[in-house]
Automatic annotation (TrEMBL):
One of its GO terms (biological process) is regulation of tube size, open tracheal system. It comes from Daphnia magna. This is EG:80H7.2 protein. Its main location: membrane. The keyword Transmembrane helix applies.
Length: 253
């Protein structure tokens, strides 16, 4: 007797030989399903990589907030970790020192105005961006393991768990990026922070963070659907093995 499960194209044949039931299984998954799964994994990995590259450029570049060139403002541009001024004199500093050029925010040059440069909301943005970068790197490492199938036994055995990790890491990255761009976009024009806020505008580093957030959301969706299909296929295979074992003592697959 023979049975066919059309979803996975499985043929099971049982026959009796020397008072023992022998089960022979011819298993062949749907080629379209396998291609779709591979496509989702590849798509999610590509999107995750693009998002990581944009995040790195946004994280390291000093062009989150830029002053319009025609305004001749002493403030020129800033990033998460660097501020640029042109002969800027801080009004609340009692000594007549000029801050000129681009310097690391924690450098000795900006030590006297460090509290003014880094209010609490900007430090929160730095923290969220750092977490987003960590989550993005973790997701990319996990997706690369699945793409190259290394280590082989581990990736095959825990495929849906690794996909779940990719989904979670990309989701957390997108959430942290959302908090970063929302907080920075809402607070960067505060008059108690940077002088002449109307002379400034959000530049390409900020835009890269926004784009990385949306691409990260798309990568999250790709990994989620791939993990969901992988779990469904694993359950179907487990049910198939149980059905085969219930018909005989010897099984050949």
């Amino acid at each position: 007797m023979a049975r066919r499960l059309p979803k996975h194209q499985v043929t099971i044949v049982h026959y009796k030989y020397e008072d023992k039931w022998i089960c022979v299984c011819n298993c062949q998954h749907d080629a379209n399903e396998i291609i779709s799964l591979t496509g989702l994994l590849m798509l999610g990995s590509i999107l995750s990589f693009i998002s990581l590259m944009l995040l790195v450029m946004s994280f390291a570049s000093p062009h989150w907030l830029v002053s319009w060139q025609d305004t001749y403002s002493p403030f020129k541009n800033m990033g998460l970790w660097e501020f640029c001024f042109s002969r800027f004199r801080y009004p609340n500093y009692q000594f007549d020192d000029l801050f000129d050029g681009c310097h690391y925010v924690f450098s000795k040059t900006y030590f006297v105005i460090w509290e003014w440069l880094l209010p609490g909301w900007l430090m929160a943005v730095q923290a969220f961006m750092t977490l987003a970068l960590i989550f993005s790197c973790s997701a990319h490492i996990a997706s690369t393991m699945l793409l190259v199938r290394w280590p082989l036994n581990f990736t095959f055995r825990y495929q849906w768990q690794i996909l779940s990790v990719c989904t979670l890491m990309n989701g957390l990255k997108s959430f942290c990026l959302f908090l970063s761009v929302a907080v920075f976009g809402g607070q960067c024009w505060r008059r108690d922070w940077m002088l002449y806020p109307n002379f400034n505008y959000l530049s390409w580093s900020y835009a890269f963070a926004v784009i990385a957030m949306f691409i990260g959301m798309a990568a999250t969706a790709s990994f989620y659907f791939d993990a969901k299909r992988t779990v469904g296929r694993k359950k179907a295979n487990s049910n198939l093995v149980v059905q085969m074992q219930s018909h005989g003592s010897q099984i050949y697959i």
